[in-house]
Amino acid sequence: MVELLPSILSADFAHLADQVAAAERGGGTAIHVDVMDGHFVPNITLGPPVVKSLRKFTTLPLDCHLMIEIPNDYIPAFAEAGANWVSVHYEACTHLHRSLELIARHGMKPGVVLNPATRVDLLEDVLYMVHHVLIMSVNPGFGGQEFIPHSLEKIRQLAELRRKLGLKFKIEVDGGVAHDTVVKVVQAGAELLVAGNAVFGAGEPERDARALLKAARKAAQGKAGRIAK
Fold first, then answer.
1. Nearest CA among 209, 227, 226, 206 for reference residue 2
2. Closest CA to 183 of 137, 217, 154, 145
3. What is the pTM assigned to this prediction?
4. How many distinct helices (H) and strands (E) make up the chain?
5. N or C: which end of the chain has fewer CB within 10 A?
6. Is 174 designated active site?
7. Which of 161, 158, 116, 152 is nearest to 136 (CA)?
8. Residue 128 — pLDDT band, cuts 50, 70, 90?
9. Which of 18, 174, 180, 208 is catalytic?
10. d(CA 95, CA 124)
11. Given 34, 37, 63, 208, which residue is catalytic?
């Protein structure tokens, strides 16, 4: 099933609890938290204290995307703060297998992230360990960027690799997911859709989350119908 993961990077932090609640009413099933350190990516966002605050006012899974150097040093802190899913970048992990094990050992669901220039096949040896693979459809670091079209081919490649290996991890996409891209993203094989500006940008997160999810699920139903034929 296609799911919507509203990204608080684009939310109004002065009213974060209300914004998250509205996105949940609109159909969001997990909250995406972009963690940036100013080193791995050229931006600084938030850390475990904000995750701990989020945990107090939502029961939805908190999907923490660590765009940071040396993520192993911070994984225990995110677990303690209440994170449910934690994903680390292939490009940031010297020992990726160890990082994924560390996430799982702290009771969280591990994920791995690929930047736009990183090949899908490089993940084959760890795919059996992960709950989800996040395909970046923009270069990480800032919200509101334009979707990179080649990301669709990477999603298709990942879906085919999953089929070939007989695995069940979910395919997540982050970057430029909006009304003009969501149909193609879902048709390519994505199931977890991270959306920031498309949900929060106009100040109507409940309305806009519901509309985006409706379009995504309609696309998924159309894809399922074609496969059945």
1. 209
2. 217
3. 0.95
4. 8, 8
5. C
6. yes
7. 116
8. very high
9. 174
10. 15
11. 34
